[in-house]
Amino acid sequence: MFVATGGATGAVMRYILTSLSKTLFASSIYGTLSVNILGSFLIGYLITSDYTKSLSEDFVKFFLIIGLLGSFTTFSAFSYEVVNLINSKKMFISFLYIFFSILLCILFAYIGMIINKF
User: 0.85 cut: is pTM over it?
Assistant: First the structure.
């Protein structure tokens, strides 16, 4: 139940953020990049947070991390968008998207972990 309810919540949150992004920008890549960066930050934060230690380990692992953040972040959408950029012959943009997605998601996961040290 934790994974299912967390997954449903994360999917709705992703839909809202990517829909908002599509109204602000011409491409959906900004929404996908945003949810992946935010999700990476939150995963890094949650796995090192003292606050989550007072919660049920099952709730944190299955609801928050696997369910909510697992469905909120979206590697399959990222892959689809990269293929579309390549098929549209936008090689430079696809390279930048891949580079910044990987770099920023790892960086923000690390930042989320570091914040808990303060």
Answer: no
